[in-house]
Amino acid sequence: MSDTALKVADYKSDLKPIWCAGCGDYGVITPFYQALVEVQAVPKDTVIVSGIGCSGRFPYFCNTFGFHGVHGRAVPTAAGVKLARPELTVIAVGGDGDGLGIGGGHVPHVARKNVDLTYILIDNSIYGLTKGQSSPTSPLSMKSKTAPYAYVEEPLNPLQMFLAYNASFVARGYSGKPKDLKDLFVQAIRHRGFSVLHIFSPCVSMNKEITFKTMNEIVKPLPDDWDPTNKLAAFEKAMDTGTFWTGLVYREERETIHDRLDAIGERVGRYQDLTELLKRFR
Is 218 among the domain residues? Predict the structure, then answer.
């Protein structure tokens, strides 16, 4: 890293974001750049892994290493990158369909392993890129291309799920509050362990029921005296579906899988040259 401090421009690629005009994702990527500046993440040592969906374009707009994977595989791919190269800053980005639908089965296992990476789940309660089908977080009242008379499946509660999965860092933000998002990004990246940040980002093109106006009426920051170590209180806030509480909901400092693997390596020894290991099986 050079002696010159990195700036926002250092993290922007030559490709400009091409989301729909007014998309909430613009309110996510700008504070994300600002957070990278604050933590001074070195671009060549930073990897952004994404899934499918509007949020899947994130790596293209960032001057870092990036991997645009298949649907639902952002989190396990990011975990593989971090386990192979633990010195890197690894960030996974996906939407509600990508992370809670087809990829939902991966999240609890990366959470229980406490892999040291940051997972940004951008939720708009709709499949926006594929033109407006109901998603795992669509409310029952919502009409969509796949539910023209109203949705009939109970929506998932991402915050409650992440707490139940025992993620060591759980936060929630809103793209209409980018300043708050920047602070949450910084905390998530600096946290040692699996950090998950659930962000609601209204889709202005396909979701006409959950808009910035309706969200502004229910978004509320956690109290100033909030204790992020109180898991039972965190569950209570997660179960309050009438208010969209934002901020650092829960944080726990505990061993990561990297700590445990290092401990095993110290105990049983490491092979610096794989040819020595392979000789044992000849």
Answer: yes
pLDDT attached to residue 258: 95
The tens digit of pLDDT for each residue in 166-220 reads 999 999 999 999 999 999 999 999 999 999 999 999 999 999 999 999 999 999 9
CATH number, position 276: 3.40.50.970
3-class secondary-structure state, position 90: strand
**Can you tell me the distance from the alpha carbon of 128 to that of 170, in angstroms, rounded to the nearest whole number?**
25
* Domain presence at residue 85: yes
1 falls within a domain: no
Q: Is residue 2 part of a domain?
A: no
pTM passes above 0.90: yes
Instruction: Please give the Cα distance from 24 to 8 (Å, whole number).
Output: 19
Which is nearest to 257 in space by CA: 211, 213, 192?
A: 192
CA distance 173 to 175: 7
